[in-house]
Write the structure tokens for this entry.
Amino acid sequence: MALGSALGVACLAAALTIPTIIAAHDARVTSRAVVPGASKNAVYQEFLDPYGSQPLRRVFIGRTGVGPVPTPPGVEAIPQAGEAVVSPKLGEILAANPRAAGLVPGRVIGTIGRAGLGGPDDLFAYIGTDPKSLSAPAPLGRFGSKYTQHEVIDPSTLDILRFTLGCIVLLPLVIFLSVCARLSGESRARRLAALRLVGLSVKDTLRVNAGETVVASGVGAVIGLIGYLGINEIMARIGLPGLHWFPADGRPEGATIAVCLLGCPALAWVVGQFSARRAAQSPISVRRTGERRPPKKHGTLLLVPGLGIIGGYCLLSAMGRDPSGGSGSAVLVPGAVLMTGAGLVFGLAPITSWLSRRLAASSTSLPLSLAMRRTEVDPGSALRVVTGLVLMVFGASLTQGVLIELDQVTRRTAPVQEYSLSASQLSTRQHSQIAGLSGVLAHGLTADSWVPTMEQELPRIRSIVATCAQLAAFTETAQGCIDNRVLRIEDPTFPLDEDALPGSNFTFLLSDGRKLKASVPHDAVTVRAYQPSEFAGPSLLIPPSFLPQGTYLSGARFVLASSSDAPTVREVLDGIGAVAPTASVEPVGIVIDSLAQLTVIRSLLVVGMVLGLVIGVAAFVVSVADRAMERRGQVAALVLLGARAGTLRVVQVVQVVVPLAVGLGAAIVAGWLAESSYLITGGGAVHWDWDGLPLLVACAVGVMLAAAVASLPMVRRHVDPEHIRRD
């Protein structure tokens, strides 16, 4: 009980501290937010750029007077022109990569302290500059906003994350702590019944049991809390993908400590009082193995409204109606998910008892009959064994839905992701290196035609420099393309360019100062571009062979294309940052903050799944071992009656696998419906997660096989005389 409580409290502290870590990050980021004011002493301009797949924030500050200037948190003094103060992580990047020095013009005179950083991996800089060099200066008012800014996770998404973590961590955790509080339930009940029979009152008997459970769980809670503190110190230095924190951020607050140190013993006391009441009130039936009451079926009724609501949403979607939107779904779907999860827990025992009775009545196999009769008599033991794993599978389904919904919101719907860079910021070598990065499918140039003066409203045309294969990689369809020929581009989804008339002549300026003349031909290539795209709108296709060797069009944008899945996008952005750290990259159609946010959410959900897996497996191992200890007397009786070792092993495996199969099957069906209802009400394009269903089924089969193998060593044919009883 003490060790089980320690593990449970460590997982509980980790789950409760995640919001604290996020809140501490957001508080420090908000405290450094620049607020414009009426100051005449300084102006500022803030920039947000991607450095690889990480957001890089830079605040340029220019002094316009000699008066006092507000100082940001973590910085001793505002840097003067030509000086800079950077975060420690950015300082490491600048020291390791001299090419990145262009990101922070000026001499680095110090680093930002912890008070001005969101986390240890924060890329941030305050740069002193000449006010005249700022393109859009604003008067510097103060540092620190009244409202939270630049949250690591959007508030609406954070609510979804909390609910999901509650389902996949806190619900299995309550079950696990309850299992630990009922360890050796049968032997303890016999001991408490003996105390009752020698004259102890009902109240005193319950007090004895409460004292044991509270002390054991209290000691375990202290051990678990100390263990979590040690793990936090290690993990804070390692971090998670997209989220790093200071060790102090992960230390539990007073409320979390109170919940861990008081909540766990309180739960153990409640469970202990419930489990010991039968031994205290009817000791004779416990000592002589009296007939047990059938499990109550009231808990199963929770499945009716839960499955009714989520099934109703799924039915509406199957009928072609869209039930998304509205405030009712935001309340009904989470409530239905909780009721379904609770119904799976409380309904497992009566369902397993009913199924065992039917199987035992129709079976002609001795091992199956023995296993089913035993499960019929004591279905509550099956509840303790499999509930944690059932909730884990149910929570895994819900987690898949959350990830799919977030993925739809934060990424492009098109299968291709584009990256746009200024060609003038790249050398010839960098051009070739970036074009050959892993994950890059194609590259091309986009540029406007040259006009001698901006004062005259002369016709202009936008062009693409690419081969037919490159054009096909950037667009949904490309028909009629001919290599090494200038072609007019037609896109039926885009307005017609009135300047791109066949026979019109346009001039393009090359990077070496020479000029390239091109005429709009009658021949056209018909394309359908993705939206948004750099290739949506240009009216002229110029083959790369028309450009002199080593040149490019002046003012051109160098555009790359890759697949739009998040890992590939991060890989390409990181590759661009390594090759050209000072180049400004525009990921077309996505916001770099959203990409970073998705990484953090994935990391936290993976942490939740790992905690849920640890809790579920621990509950299963503890329950199976405890159940085997309780069944020693029954195994001894079967051995004396002549049961073979193979028969006993089959009985043990069937007793574990059948309730587990029932629970996991129900969890897969209910979880998939819950996931689908969440996706349907979310309003995204994906309503049915058919791809994730085989994975859940495969995991369930693997869990059952592992449970069967783990049950075999629990059967011992050695007969201990103290287990021989005269029932």
